[in-house]
Design brief:
11 strands, alpha+beta, three-stranded antiparallel β-sheet, flat, four-stranded mixed β-sheet
Length: 588
């Protein structure tokens, strides 16, 4: 029996494969486009079973399969084949070659050979035990040849040897004079050795003392020369100023050089610190003068920003404090209060408007997401709720307190609002950058999550507050789905009257370089169903994945110098023809 395969017209409404079903998990060799497309359609038609990890999901789906091989063909028929283990690779039949099956059979053969080797080893041990018993039997036969016990009576001979040894010890112990002389000789030799060792120690100690005496004389002369170069008043002044520090040093001839070096290092470090403080103060003064000149150039146009102009700036400071500042302070305070309150009110309105815009954009994105099938039975919905972050909630409450009752416009009320704005907002804005960035970014006012819902009754299947606990493929699929919906929203593809006329060009750079082929095909099917016009930039090893979705290829190459690129274009039909010719040539 065989099937007649014909060229199939592409189905424009075909949706993306569900990664939880069997066809998505199978990779089809793309050597013959007609055959691979027919095979993919047959797999989708006959084997669209959902791969379930739990029995609850198995009961929920209409056609499903579990890891243990239980198959659900509908609402009534269930099937399971337990004749072979589910993970026995020797029974596998799918794949582009039989290398895995051969490997499994070789592993089984290796196991049988190991068992055979163990049996051979047991036989070898049994033979060794048999040989040992034969050897013992031979020894017993030889032993039976002795007719007289005297031939093997070793105890009598050993008793005679011990008796002779005892006699020898008694003869040696009887000579007391010899023993006493031996003891005296050992004592004399020990005394001579100790005397020679003591003499050598005394010679070395004497030499060490002479060397120390010479070094001490040399150090004393050096100290006297140094003292003569400094006057007595200078020495007394230095000693008075450094009394506490000098107590830390022993000041002996042996340590005087090290003490001098340590004290020199300490004084140099103190000098560097003072110079650093002086430079820091000079820089701070210069920066303050520069800031003042930048803010009020007409007042100090003839003054520079170096330290030689510091007295002029100090005189100007006194003049401002005594003459100009009191005259303008009241007017400035009134205008500042009014302008700051108006600015904060506009600031709050702008933040509220941004929050409303985000919520409206989420709703429009959900309209696009509801038209996309995440699986055969579910779709994705974005959720945004008011954040529960304490800092942001306190900030929004502070905004209300700062503005207060807009009906009350007296000077006292404005002053109270200004003080609240100053203490609750402006001072924190100036001193806490992290807090400022957090509370003024309206995106932080909302907590975002993703809800996967059944299309049949809109009930929730899963709720994702983040991607933790998900596999890499599940993370990629979720990201692709939301990204495609956002692109559709930006291009307005949810409006039927402009879907086929709008410019909807999308460029995907480094496409799928770190993604598996299954997720790459899902993304391409998703973009295809959304009628997006794609330019896919991808390595050569991913061409087989995107091949069914593109009409032409453009190969970009660069010369070795790296300053000139060229492009060679070819249609997908020509590419497939050239590939088939190359494969035929390699087989020949």
């Amino acid at each position: 029996m065989y099937y007649r395969i014909t060229t199939l017209a592409p189905n424009p409404i075909q949706r993306a494969l569900d990664p939880t079903q069997i066809p998505y998990k199978l990779e089809i060799k793309q050597e013959d486009e007609t055959f691979s497309q027919w095979l993919r359609d047959q797999l989708v038609r006959q084997f669209s079973y959902v791969c379930c990890d739990t029995i609850e999901q198995f009961h929920h789906e209409s056609r499903a399969i579990t890891r243990t091989g239980l198959i659900k063909h509908g609402s009534e028929r269930h099937e399971k084949d337990d004749r072979n283990k589910i993970g026995d690779r020797s029974q596998y039949i799918l794949g582009w070659n039989n290398a895995s099956k051969i490997k499994a059979l070789e592993a089984e053969l290796k196991q049988v050979n190991q068992q055979l080797a163990q049996i051979n080893q047991q036989i070898k041990v049994s033979e060794q035990q048999r040989n040992q018993r034969l050897q013992k039997d031979s020894w017993l036969q030889e032993f039976m040849k002795f007719a007289d016990f005297a031939e093997i009576d070793w105890r009598s001979t050993e008793a005679e040897r011990l008796e002779l040894q005892n006699q020898r010890q008694k003869l040696k112990a009887s000579s007391d004079r010899l023993k006493q002389l031996e003891i005296q000789l050992k004592e004399a030799q020990l005394e001579i050795t100790q005397a020679e060792q003591q003499r050598e120690n005394l010679i070395r100690e004497l030499q060490t003392l002479e060397d120390r005496h010479q070094r001490a004389k040399k150090e004393q002369g050096h100290c006297e020369t140094t003292m003569q170069a400094v006057s007595t008043p200078e020495i007394e002044a230095f000693e008075k100023r450094m009394t506490a520090k000098l107590r830390q040093y022993s000041m002996t001839l042996e340590s005087i050089n090290q003490d001098e070096a340590n004290l020199r290092d300490y004084l140099q470090e103190q000098l560097r610190q003072k110079e650093g403080q002086q430079n820091s103060s000079q820089n701070a003064l210069g920066m303050r003068m520069l800031n003042f000149k930048t803010a009020f150039p007409e007042t100090v146009s003839e003054l520079g920003t170096s330290l030689e102009y510091l007295d002029e700036y100090l005189k100007l400071k006194v003049q401002i404090e005594q003459d100009d500042l009191p005259r303008h302070e009241q007017r400035f305070k009134q205008l500042m209060n009014e302008k700051v309150i108006i600015a904060i009110s506009m600031f709050k309105s702008a933040l509220d408007k941004q929050e409303e815009d985000i919520e409206q954009a989420i709703e429009e994105l959900n309209e696009s997401l509801q038209k996309i099938s995440y699986t055969e039975s579910t779709y994705i919905r974005l959720c945004c709720d008011k954040t529960r972050t304490r800092e942001i909630r306190d900030f929004k409450e502070d905004l209300k307190i700062c503005l207060g009752d807009v009906v009350r416009q007296s000077a006292e009320d404005n002053e109270e609002r200004f003080q609240n704005i100053q203490t609750r907002l402006i001072e924190r804005f100036k001193s806490e950058d992290r807090w400022t960035n957090l509370v003024t970014d309206v995106r932080n006012w909302l907590d975002f999550s993703v809800s996967e819902r059944y299309r049949s009754d809109n009930s929730e299947k899963e709720h994702h507050t983040d991607s933790s606990g998900k596999s890499g493929g599940q993370k990629v699929k979720l990201a692709y789905t939301i990204l495609a919906s956002a692109i559709a929203y930006q291009f307005g593809l949810n409006q039927e009257n402009i879907k086929h006329k709008s410019f909807r060009f999308v460029v995907i750079d480094e496409a799928f370089s770190k993604s598996d082929d299954g997720n790459a095909r899902y993304a391409m099917e998703l973009f295809k169903n959304l009628n997006l016009q794609l330019l896919v930039v991808t390595p050569k090893d991913k061409i087989n994945v995107i091949e069914p979705y593109i009409s032409s290829l453009h190969f970009v190459s660069n010369i070795p110098e790296g300053n000139y690129s060229s492009i060679a274009s070819i249609s997908i039909e020509e590419y497939r023809h050239n590939r088939q010719v190359a494969l035929s040539s390699s087989r020949d």
